[in-house]
Amino acid sequence: MEIAYIQTPIGIAELKGDENGLASVSVLDKNKPIGTIPGILESAAKQFQEYFEGTRTEFDLKLNPEGTDFQKKVWEALQEIPFGKTISYLDLSKQLGDVKAIRAVASANGKNPLWIVVPCHRVIGTNGDLTGYAGGLHRKKWLLEHESPVKQTALF
Question: 114 with 16: CB under 8 angstroms?
C-alpha cells in the first residue's frame, strides 16, 4: 500500500492505495511532511488539487475501500449525490429501500474511508443541520460551501 500526503485547504490529506485502487482518503489534524507522490497515487493527487481549485466536480478513480457489503452499498449510494447537492440520512435510507435502517446507514456513512471522493459530507440531518462528520463539522461546512453553486461573501 502506497501513501501520499497532500496539502489541502482543510488540512493535510493522506491518500492510500495500490494497483487495485484508492483504498482510503483522510484529512489529518496534525502536520505531516509533504513528500514525493508515488506514481500509483499521482492521478488521485492531481484530481484532489483540481477539486480544491474548483475545476473538478467528479472524481474518476479506481476505488478499493474495505468494508462490509452493506457499507459498500451505502458508499455506492453516496456517489450518486450530485456535486453541490445534499441529502438527508432519512432520504438516503429510503433510497436504499429501508427507512428503518437509518442508524445503520448513518453508521456506514461515518465509516466511509474515502472522504470527499465518496461524498459523505453531502449527507445532512432531516432538519438541515450539519450532523456528524468524522473529520469535524468545520470541514463538512467548508466542503459544502466549496461545492455550493451560490458563492456567498462575508458581509462583515
Answer: no
Nearest to 125 by CA among 143, 102, 152: 102
pLDDT, tens digit, for every residue of 51-108?
A: 999 999 999 999 999 999 999 999 999 999 999 999 999 999 999 999 899 999 999 9
- Please name the residue that has the C-alpha cell 438527508: 88
Q: Cell digits for 2? A: 502506497
Q: Which residue has cell 493527487?
A: 45
CA-nearest of 22, 81, 72, 82 to 46 is: 22
> Region 1-7: what's the mean pLDDT?
96
pLDDT in tens, 19-55: 999 999 999 988 888 889 999 999 999 999 999 999 9
The number of beta carbons lying within 10 Å of the beta carbon of residue 47 is 18
d(CA 36, CA 25): 17
Q: Which residues 6+ apart lie within 8 Å of 138 measured at CB?
A: none
Residue 155 above 70 pLDDT? Answer: no
Distance of CA 155 to the CA centre of its chain: 29
For residue 152, the SS3 value is coil
CB 51: neighbour CB atoms within 10 A?
A: 20
Kindly list the catalytic residues.
120
